[in-house]
Amino acid sequence: MLDSRKVTASAPGKTILFGEHSVVYGKPAIAAAVDKRVYVTISPREDHLTHVKIGDLGVSGFLDLKNQSIELENGSEMQRGILEYVMKALIKAETVDSVDVDVRLDLPIGAGLGSSAAITVATIMAAASFNQIALTNESIANLAHQVELDVQGAASPIDTSLSTHGGVIYLSKNPQKLVKLEISGELPIVIGYTSTRGNTGELVELVRQKKEARPEVINPILDSMEAVANGARQALIKGDHKTIGLLMNINHGLLDAIGVNTEELSKMVFTARNNGAMGSKLTGAGGGGSMIAYCPGREEEVVSSINQFERAFKINVAQNGVRLENPQE
Ligand code: MEV
């Protein structure tokens, strides 16, 4: 008989405020969970197949969890990757075939909000609950990071940590030692994003090659990024707008120096500054994708100025990380 278990878990996306790329080399980074979530629902099937549907992306397919293979039903070959995150997440939570997985995205695609990490984290929690396995948030974050490493190669634990724990997090060399930053009030941050997306794996590799070829040039830049993140940590806690803005501008320059900036990103970065942002920078891997602007009291002006040629919105911090949406069922 078909059992009636149906579990939904959700997890927030994230945006990196300081320290992308340098975090790959053990430097600190600061990121915020964003109140745009993904929802993963797992329910039983009568046959022995596992089906995944991500309606918002037009992607679906059958998974064979035993043999770890994917049969794409809808979507492009490039989108197959997202089903891999789901498959590996289901396996980490000890799922056996015969489940339906429905993924709903409440976050804009391509805005650099870490949708694959959020999907991975929410899938692990939903599947663990479905399989009646108790997992701490630390284990969920660890398992999700392993999935990211498996699927995309080099990755820091930043995305999976934020989707799991929520809030604003300072992440240092030891990912077990996350520090949640207590920030008073809202973070006055706007995200702008372009339709072109950078490939995170390729951009991380590009920086690695530069570092290898010219360590005497690149290492001091990574050290500066570390100093920027540490300064920003204090400034964020104090609510020191001027310093936060200044450090964002410096961080953008340093990211440009390591080759991950683009003309489109810079156009948004400078438009934000010209319309009242105290600081702005690209965020995430770069090479396209998104930027953030720190604009206390000027959020609306900055959003509408970027919206003239790209897309932008104001973020709110999600204090809650991964959670079950129907724990009583
Ligand atoms: C990508 O969102 C952030 C990078 O630092 C890569 C990573 O941390 O895994 C570029």
Structure explained in plain terms:
- The chain has about 325 residues and is of the alpha+beta class.
- It folds into 2 domains: about 5-185, Ribosomal Protein S5, domain 2, CATH 3.30.230.10; about 190-315, 2-Layer Sandwich (Alpha-Beta Plaits).
- The chain is built from 9 helices and 13 strands.
- Strands 1, 2, 3, 4, 5, 6, 7, 8 and 13 form a 9-stranded mixed β-sheet that branches. A 4-stranded antiparallel β-sheet has the order 10-11-9-12.
- The radius of gyration is 20 Å and the shape is globular.
- It starts with 6 loop residues before the first strand and ends in a 5-residue tail after the last strand.
- The mean pLDDT is about 95.
- The structure holds (R)-mevalonate (MEV).
- (R)-mevalonate binds near residues 20, 23, 155, 159 and 284.
- (R)-mevalonate binds near residues 20, 21 and 285.
Give a quick summary of the entry:
Helices cover 39% and strands 24% of the residues.
Identify the overall geometry. Answer: globular
Rounded radius of gyration (Å): 20 Å
How many structural domains can be distinguished in the coordinates?
2
Helix content: 25-40%
Ligands (ions, cofactors included) = (R)-mevalonate
Q: Please report the total strand number as a whole number.
A: 13
What's the story with the biggest beta sheet? 9 strands, mixed
Give the SSE order as H and E letters. EEEEEHEHHHEEEHHHHEEHEE
Q: What is the name of the CATH architecture of the largest domain?
A: 2-Layer Sandwich
Through-space gap between termini: 18 Å
Number of distinct helices:
9
Top CATH class of the largest domain: Alpha Beta
Residue runs with pLDDT of under 50 for 5 or more positions: none
Give the helix/strand class: alpha+beta
**Topology-level CATH name of the largest domain:** Ribosomal Protein S5, domain 2
- Amount of beta strand: 15-25%
Mean pLDDT: 93
